[in-house]
Design goal:
The complex is a heterodimer of chains A (233) and B (250). Chain A has a five-stranded antiparallel β-sheet, covered by helices on one side. Chain A has a three-stranded antiparallel β-sheet with strand order 4-5-6, covered by helices on one side. Chain A has helices at 2-36, 47-94, 117-129, 179-187, 192-200, 229-232; strands at 100-109, 134-137, 140-141, 148-152, 158-162, 165-167, 171-176, 205-214, 227-228. Chain A contains six helices and nine strands; from the N terminus they run H-H-E-H-E-E-E-E-E-E-H-H-E-E-H. The mean pLDDT of chain A is 88. In chain A, helix 3 (117-129) packs across helix 4. The mean pLDDT of chain B is 87. In chain B, strand 5 and strand 6 (183-185) form a beta hairpin. Chain B has eight helices and nine strands. Chain B has two domains: 2-34 and 49-75, no CATH class; 103-230, 2-Layer Sandwich (Alpha-Beta Plaits), CATH 3.30.70.1880. The termini of chain B are far apart. Chain B has helices at residues 2-7, 9-41, 45-75, 83-99, 118-127, 141-151, 197-206, 208-215, and strands at residues 105-114, 157-160, 163-164, 171-174, 177-180, 183-185, 189-194, 220-230, 243-244. By secondary structure, chain B is of the alpha+beta class. The chains are: A alpha+beta (233), B alpha+beta (250). Strand 1 (100-109) of chain A pairs antiparallel with strand 9 of chain B.
Chain lengths: 233, 250
């Protein structure tokens, strides 16, 4: 009786175990199946869901497109601005709006010699012929509208004026450019310095300089007569 | 142990059989479900392809956006580059170009026309060939330079024979040919000055160079104009040697 009941219980236990194992193995395989097929999960979706997904992805792509276009505009604006800034800097240097420094020459005329405005005009011109990028006299920037004169004071002393300001001796003309070229342009036989030497016994001192600093030109007055031809047309 | 195994051999065999059965059932179910999917959803395959394609595209775009954002942040860290800033730079450039002779301009002013004294030269040559010096009857580069020095400071814009005079302009000669801005100019030399016609003409009358040339009987004419047209300077503007100097701001 006791044995029979025990045997019955054992059989019952075995059946339960078998069922559990079956379910377990089934579950394990299903899990592997699910994991290995996660990419294929899309295929399992209904057509409606897939269409909705395509639609939402399309919307998302459009938004990304806008964002990209915006960023690309910013980037091209940035590079255009950089180009424009560079252009402005070049233009401002050319216009004499910025103090400049660089290699060049200096021409010094001491109080020992009387020089006329023409001599200074010619020396400055010769320096520009030799490629001077900026020229100054006694640290005053020369421009296309510089006005150099010579006068005599009450003590009958000849003196030079630049833009209405008396120039004190020594007169130092400085220029930025290739030092050798600038020097050669002045001192060749028959050149301006040679003429000053032989015709007037004036001996300016020409020296190559590793660094010359030239101030900005005075800011121009607001024009009252000149108009932009493009805007006037 | 051995005894235990023997006693439960039946149980173990059964366990193994059912384990295998479970696997077999699940594999069959899987095969069946895949078959069912293929049959039922083959029309969805197109949609799935589209989705995969779209996802690949959006991923790529997300990466581009990320890269661009990083680049922009590096190039424009302070966020100063705006449309207003660009317009401001543009305006500054236009102003600088206008003031420095890089744009064509118009306005009132005077035209000084100088010519070689060919009549005087011929007469002198016929009268006294031995003492005839042709250079005394032509306009030299220096004449133009000195004349400009006397009047240009009162002008707003200057040109000689349509060569705009800028800060770096030079006026020289090679033989008897005058060169302005590295361009040959031929007589008659027309100096156009924009500014107040009265002031410019007054300064010209007092110019020592003008008086000198007049006394030499060089043909000089002055005329006023309400609408002079001066071209833009077209030469090189970028230098090679000059660098902006460190400005010590107070």
């Amino acid at each position: 009786m006791d044995d029979k009941a025990k045997e019955k219980r054992q059989k019952y236990n075995v059946l339960t175990l078998c069922l559990a194992l079956t379910l377990l193995s089934f579950a394990v395989v299903c899990q592997i199946n699910f994991e290995s097929n996660s990419l294929q999960a899309l295929e399992g979706q209904s057509t409606e869901d897939l269409v909705a997904m395509v639609r939402s992805l399309n919307d998302y792509r459009a938004r990304l497109d806008d964002e990209l276009a915006q960023l690309e505009r910013s980037q091209s604006a940035l590079s255009a601005t950089a180009t424009l800034e560079k252009q402005l800097q070049t233009s401002r240097i050319f216009a004499g709006e910025i103090p400049l420094t660089g290699p060049g020459v200096s021409v010094t005329i001491t109080a020992d010699y009387d020089v006329y405005s023409m001599d200074v005009i010619d020396i400055a011109n010769e320096l520009k012929v030799s490629g001077a990028e900026a020229v100054a006299v006694n640290n005053h920037r020369l421009t296309a509208k510089s006005h150099i004169t010579h006068e005599t004071d009450q003590e009958d002393q000849l003196y030079l004026s630049l833009d209405g300001e008396r120039l004190l001796t020594p007169i130092v003309i400085t220029a930025i450019g290739d030092p050798a070229t600038l020097e050669k342009g002045l001192i060749f036989t028959g050149g301006i310095i040679d003429n000053l030497n032989t015709l007037y016994s004036i001996y300016p001192l020409v020296r190559q300089e590793t660094q010359v600093t030239i101030p900005a030109a005075a800011a121009p007055n607001t024009p009252s007569y000149m108009k932009n031809a493009a805007s006037a047309a | 142990m051995h005894e235990f195994l023997q006693k439960n051999r039946f149980v173990f065999s059964l366990s193994l059989i059912f384990l295998l059965a479970g696997i077999a059932i699940s594999v069959w179910v899987r095969a069946w479900s895949i078959n069912a999917q293929i049959n039922a959803n083959s029309e969805n395959q197109n949609l799935v392809d589209v989705i995969n394609q779209l996802e690949a595209e959006t991923t790529e775009m997300e990466q581009s956006i990320d890269r661009l954002r990083t680049e922009l942040a590096e190039q424009n860290p302070d966020g100063i580059v705006t449309d207003e800033y660009y317009a401001k730079i543009q305006q500054q450039l236009a102003d600088t170009q206008f003031y420095s002779g890089q744009t064509a301009v118009s306005g009132s002013g005077i035209i000084v026309t100088l010519n070689d004294n060919t009549a005087g030269a011929e007469a002198a040559q016929q009268a006294d060939p031995a003492n005839y010096f042709p250079e005394n009857y032509i306009i030299h580069d220096s004449n133009l330079r000195y004349l400009l020095n006397d009047v240009a400071y009162l002008a707003e814009a200057i040109a000689i024979n349509d060569q705009r005079i800028v800060d770096t302009s030079d006026i020289r000669c090679v033989g008897t040919v005058i060169i302005v801005n590295s361009t040959r100019v031929a007589p008659p030399y027309e100096i156009k000055l924009i500014g107040s016609p009265a002031i410019l003409e007054g300064a010209l009358q007092e110019s020592s160079q003008y008086i000198y040339l007049k006394n030499k009987n060089m043909p000089i004419k002055v005329s006023r104009s309400e609408n002079l047209q001066l071209p833009a300077y077209t030469g090189a503007i970028s230098g090679k040697y000059a660098q902006p100097a460190e400005t010590t701001t107070p």
